[in-house]
């Protein structure tokens, strides 16, 4: 039976009456995406992915028990390899690479367990979303949900600009013991705030983060979700939806610039160039002119407004460049020390990049003890999970790009563009949790689109 066909199954014999229908309901996926601002406000945030993975896994097993096949995405062997290496690499948690703070393996286990749970949860999300049929959750509706989250991202950006110090204690946070909820990592999970206050261009300034927790995550998700808003608007066929999408993209330039997020700026460039390249391959040469005009108008708009000063100030203040170079060097050195499966997780450096005596303190939280593997998904993969884990992770998404390369539909282009931007982002952003969630949902849409195309070809041949 095809992916797009409804799933029906008789359970029991005639004594049970009419046949019962075994389906996968859309609510586990829909509720995560539609109500994400609510989960953020409640203090669940990224934890909702692990929470919803439980009913999704139960429903998949129930479907399998009912005799229906649960399909795995193309190239899943690569992803399975990655998950196996993540588990195997836990055995190296007790190792203390040169230049890192010594710590017992048990002290590192909570963070590693959290990441493993999230990787497994997003695996369930991938399989569940890919097995949903058109009658259960139409692809167009899933695209709308992702487009909605881009609107949420832009709204969160303006909130961070207008009320950078806005924060509150969430209900989940209130339920936690005081000695737990005050920990920085726990705060990042359960304490909602609008922006990160950072000294990047002189003086503490807010950088948009809501509702994604970190400014870098906000920028990563901006690139991953932008295309879906346009696809949703154009698929609706309504002029007001198209006008709203264009307006939303135009005004999103403001928080994107104010975020001082150079990785976001590069990601937008990668996104535009890739989409234009795909359109040119499809014979739509006019896209070159559109991109050129749009780029010129953007440049004029930025230079003619205070945003130009923000961009120049950011370019003149590359405070993070030295730290990033330092951490990349440490990650590569660590990789050579354990090249196959890595060290199971990240490590904190002894001191800073200039001296081993410079470390984190109450008065200077960012002075040292930097996290090796915390400055980009690629470096974390190499350091924490070695060549085997990196090959599995990258192999899965590269296989997807190759497998779905002929999909010229709006979903095909937007989905593959999301995968491409995720590769660009992994040089400076970490993927867990929401960026990887939106990446696997893009993969699920490509997978379902591909299956629907094969079904259509099969129907025509009969």
Termini, distance in Å? 15 Å
The overall pLDDT, averaged over residues, is 87
- Number of DSSP E strands: 4
Percent of residues in beta strands: under 5%
Keywords: Membrane, Transmembrane, Transmembrane helix
Transmembrane segments: 38-60, 72-92, 112-133, 145-166, 218-234, 241-258, 264-281, 286-307, 382-402
InterPro entries: WaaL-like
Describe the protein in words.
This protein has helices at residues 27-34, 36-42, 47-65, 76-88, 105-131, 139-162, 171-175, 178-181, 184-190, 215-236, 239-251, 253-258, 262-281, 286-303, 307-316, 319-337, 377-403, 410-425, 434-461, and strands spanning 195-199, 204-208, 347-348, 371-372. A hairpin with a 4-residue loop joins strand 1 (195-199) and strand 2. The protein starts with 26 loop residues before the first helix and ends with a helix. The strands form 2 sheets. The chain has a two-stranded antiparallel sheet. The relative contact order is 0.14. It is 63% helix and 3% strand. With 462 residues, the protein is mainly α. The protein has 19 helices and 4 strands. The longest helix has 28 residues, at 434-461. It has one domain (14-461). Helix 3 crosses helix 5 (105-131), helix 5 (105-131) packs parallel to helix 19 and helix 13 (262-281) runs antiparallel to helix 14. The radius of gyration is 23 Å and the shape is globular. The chain crosses the membrane at residues 38-60, 72-92, 112-133, 145-166, 218-234, 241-258, 264-281, 286-307, 382-402. Keywords: Membrane, Transmembrane, Transmembrane helix.
């Amino acid at each position: 039976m095809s992916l797009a066909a409804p799933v029906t199954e008789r359970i029991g014999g005639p004594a049970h009456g009419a046949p019962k229908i075994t389906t996968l309901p859309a609510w586990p996926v829909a509720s995560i995406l539609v109500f994400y601002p609510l989960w953020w406000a409640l203090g669940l945030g990224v934890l909702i992915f692990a929470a919803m993975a439980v009913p999704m896994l139960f429903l998949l097993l129930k479907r399998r028990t009912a005799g229906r096949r649960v399909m795995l995405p193309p190239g899943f062997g690569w992803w399975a390899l990655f998950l196996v290496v993540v588990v195997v690499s836990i055995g190296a948690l007790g190792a203390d690479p040169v230049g890192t703070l010594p710590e017992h393996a048990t002290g590192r286990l909570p963070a590693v367990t959290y990441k493993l749970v999230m990787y497994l949860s997003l695996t369930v999300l991938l399989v569940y979303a890919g097995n949903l049929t058109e009658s259960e959750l139409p692809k167009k509706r899933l695209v709308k949900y992702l487009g909605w989250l881009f609107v949420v991202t832009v709204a969160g950006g303006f909130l961070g600009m207008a009320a950078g110090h806005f924060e509150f204690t969430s209900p989940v946070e209130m339920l936690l013991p005081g000695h737990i909820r005050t920990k920085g990592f726990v705060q990042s999970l359960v304490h909602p705030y609008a922006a990160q206050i950072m000294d990047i261009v002189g003086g503490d300034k807010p950088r948009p983060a809501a509702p994604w927790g970190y400014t870098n995550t906000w920028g990563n998700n901006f690139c991953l979700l932008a295309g879906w808003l346009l696809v949703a608007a154009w698929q609706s066929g309504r002029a007001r939806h198209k006008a709203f999408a264009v307006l939303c993209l135009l005004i999103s330039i403001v928080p994107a610039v104010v975020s001082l997020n150079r990785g976001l700026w590069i990601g937008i460039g990668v996104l535009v160039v890739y989409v234009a390249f795909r359109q040119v391959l499809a014979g739509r040469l006019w896209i070159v002119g559109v991109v050129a005009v749009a780029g010129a108008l953007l440049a004029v708009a930025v230079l003619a407004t205070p945003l130009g000063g923000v961009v120049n100030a950011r370019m003149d203040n590359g405070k993070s460049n030295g730290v990033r170079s330092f951490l990349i060097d440490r990650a590569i050195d660590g990789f050579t020390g354990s090249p196959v499966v890595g060290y199971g997780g990240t490590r904190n450096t002894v001191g800073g990049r200039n001296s081993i005596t410079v470390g984190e303190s109450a008065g200077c939280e960012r002075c040292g003890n930097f996290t090796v593997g915390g400055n980009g998904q690629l470096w974390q993969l190499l350091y924490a999970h070695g060549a085997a884990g990196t090959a599995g992770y990258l192999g899965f998404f590269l296989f997807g790009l190759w497998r779905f390369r002929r999909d010229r539909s709006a979903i095909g282009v937007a989905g593959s563009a999301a995968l491409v931007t995720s590769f660009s982002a992994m040089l400076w952003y970490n993927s867990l949790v929401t960026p990887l969630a939106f990446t696997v949902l893009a993969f699920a849409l490509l997978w379902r689109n591909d299956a629907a195309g094969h079904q259509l070809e099969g129907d025509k041949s009969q």
